[in-house]
Amino acid sequence: MRFLFLLVSMIVLFSQLIFSESEYSFDLDEIEKKPYSFGGYLETRPVFDRDEEYNAKLQLDGSYEKEIAKIYTKINFDMQESHLGWSDTTSILEGYLSLKPSSSLNINIGKKALKWGKGYAWTPVAFFDRTKNPDDPDLALEGFIGLSADYTKSYSGALKTISFTPVLLPVYDNINDEFGETDKLNFGGKLYLLLYDTDIDFIMLADGSKTSRYGFDFSRNITSNFEIHGEFAFVNEYDAKSYLFGIRYLTKLDTTFIVESYHNDTRFTDGEMNPTRDYLYARISQKEPFDILYFTPSITGIVNTNDKSFSLSPELLYTGITNLELRLKTTFFSGQSNSEYGEKYNDYKIELMARYYF
Prior knowledge:
The chain contains two helices and 18 strands. The protein is mainly beta.
């Protein structure tokens, strides 16, 4: 059944690729902006460690826009076959109505991922977002149902842009109940400034389903190829402080370095074991080495600096076929017993991913 599952997934994937090819034609109607859009991807991803696991995913997104209104939705279908058996889930990641009565004001009603914070692997100030997976930080996250607005003004001078984003997020049975304590209406917001060419956010969440918390972040390009960013969050619970500092550097040879240091106070009290307090993240990727077109190798390391355990993930990415992305990723885990990565179920895992965009 596992091999049949993988085979069917691959057949569907590559049949999409084959039948999508057609002769090139030029039509003026095709370059006109349409009121609707539709896209997504189909993915198959077998994973090999002590056991075998076969995953498939279909993600669809679409929008329709008319005058000041826009409707957007993103739906995710996940399927998995493993030693535990078959499972499948369907999730509406986002689904909201956006109203833009003026160029300065935008109102969103529904389920939306806000994507706050400047961190790449972690975002401690993303109070209204779900937690990122540092092993796959680019993965689309599910939003929460709420009401938000963006009011933006531009100026000439040191302060170029100011934007205010208030957020209302209800938490009741079957409505955002993963967010925290139910029967609460949560309020918060973000104040954004583009000041002296530096992006700055001040963020807060009032006491409600969670304890009140406050934070700020920043991002600045020191040069065109060197960026620094940071975040600081204070949670009114055990006076917890979490912070992050990171850099992103692109060399003349198209080598990208991303490094982040992260401290998290919010997981445990002082008297409890705390394997998730301090981390170091580093990723190095090289675009088209040795002039191999569409090929990007990379390596990612995550170190728990408290218990000295770590994961190391070399990766090969190829995008030379139109709309198709092929990735081979191996992850090794190392650490002493009772350490975070030393206690992983397996010592390594190998992932093969094929993703077709349409």
